[in-house]
UniProtKB/TrEMBL annotation:
Purpose of the protein: Catalyzes the isomerization between 2-isopropylmalate and 3-isopropylmalate, via the formation of 2-isopropylmaleate.
UniProt subunit comment: Heterodimer of LeuC and LeuD.
Domain Aconitase/3-isopropylmalate dehydratase large subunit alpha/beta/alpha stretches: 8-458
Name of this chain's protein: 3-isopropylmalate dehydratase large subunit
Keywords: 4Fe-4S, Amino-acid biosynthesis, Branched-chain amino acid biosynthesis, Iron, Iron-sulfur, Leucine biosynthesis, Lyase, Metal-binding
Enzyme class: lyase
Listed transmembrane segments: none
Cofactor remark: Binds 1 [4Fe-4S] cluster per subunit.
Reaction(s) catalysed by this chain's protein: (2R,3S)-3-isopropylmalate = (2S)-2-isopropylmalate
The keyword Membrane belongs to this UniProt entry's keyword annotation: no
Pathway involvement of the protein, from the record: Amino-acid biosynthesis; L-leucine biosynthesis; L-leucine from 3-methyl-2-oxobutanoate: step 2/4
Species the sequence originates in: Pseudocalidococcus azoricus BACA0444
Amino acid sequence: MSRGTLFDKVWDLHTVSTLPSGQTQLFIGLHLIHEVTSPQAFAMIRERKLPVLFPNRTVATVDHIVPTDNQARPLADSLAEEMLQALEKNCQDYNIRFYGIGSGNQGIVHVIAPEQGLTQPGMTIACGDSHTSTHGAFGAIAFGIGTSQVRDVLASQTLALAKLKVRKIEVNGSLRPGVYAKDVILHIIRKLGVKGGVGYAYEFAGSTFAQMTMEERMTVCNMAIEGGARCGYVNPDQVTFDYLQGRDQAPKGEAWEQAVAWWQSLASDPDAVYDDGVVFDAAEIPPTVTWGITPGQGIGVNEPIPEPKYLPDSEKALAQEAYTYMQLEPGQPIQGTKVDVCFIGSCTNGRISDLREAAKIAQGRQVAPGIKAFVVPGSERVKEAAEAEGLDQIFTAAGFEWREPGCSMCLAMNPDKLQGSQISASSSNRNFKGRQGSASGRTLLMSPAMVVAAAVTGQVTDVRELLN
Ligand SMILES: CC(C)[C@H](C(=O)O)[C@@H](O)C(=O)O
Ligand code: SF4
């Protein structure tokens, strides 16, 4: 029964059957794949001699393992080359669209699908990648799946899933200068916890999201999963339609008008019933930085690292683990913490608008001595657009390295890795232990503008001090 939310409407429209288990057999409109989680799925369908049922509903790219300096084939890392070849072969054998290196369309899977207009409102989208929640920015129901589910989608274009509850997260008002979409989602996760969203889809509503661009909404939805919500979404509106109109895979002509009317009808009704609701005031959100080992361990850049006595009992053990691992003292300010590496990129903040905001701060400044700072565009299209605007020049003049597109040091499944216990200021989405390629490497998550502020000062700095 629809309760009037976009989630319920889209879910019901894609329900093929209710399984004896009580789960829904859900039709998946768009399936995105990459080199890391697809090889075994293909192996499983090969073994069972199953076809890919709707090859035109699957789109592939390579992102995690690509080097961001020299991308010449064969790739220097033989394991990476093998993974790339496996994906190429699977796509060829099963007639699947593949956006490879140099195609002009390669990039992080969650960057390329929206930019090509593949991601559309009202769709169900699955990918063997947790940050598939990104696509919810368009009013799609998009979620990450495991490799055996990738197999299920390849073979049947459906998944067996339990329906989620829906929590409405309202943020109202204008963000203060120096506060970005990244801060909004870090703040939400700080307040609701990394497990707060388990069992829920997050609907992001209110005037703050209404005022956001599509790329800002993608940043927010990208990290819904870090708050435990398997998917997050924003209802489609004129901002969504304006972004999509004219994109390669978007409907054209009369089909466009019909699509817009259809998409509008899918937005949550004003009287929709939610399982839960939370309201935030945008003006109260500070530039936020993580100090710990989960994306929920965030604080305002001007706040001290929380002392155990101020934490609920349930958070104390994790905080202890974080002080030790991060080599940070409770009660000390996070501002002024020295950093070693500054990384701008990832599916959270590797889009053109992110690079523009970062370049605004970098312009006319210099990366501090001894800091390694680099910018990795989220896709080949982002790179091309950035170069057309001269952003690469601004970054390189400031002492940043300008790289080829890929996931890069977000996860360091390529040569971009922290060394030893280096600290990075990172525009990515995960600060787990060892996340960025060194078992003792440390990650501070923040907005791209804050990463630049850290790069040019050599330490965690309130970006508002650098705004004119
Ligand atoms: C490699 C992949 C399965 C993984 C994910 O699921 O998200 C990665 O993209 C990440 O960000 O940790
Ligand atoms: S950029 Fe990072 S979070 Fe996004 S898909 Fe790649 S590894 Fe995962």
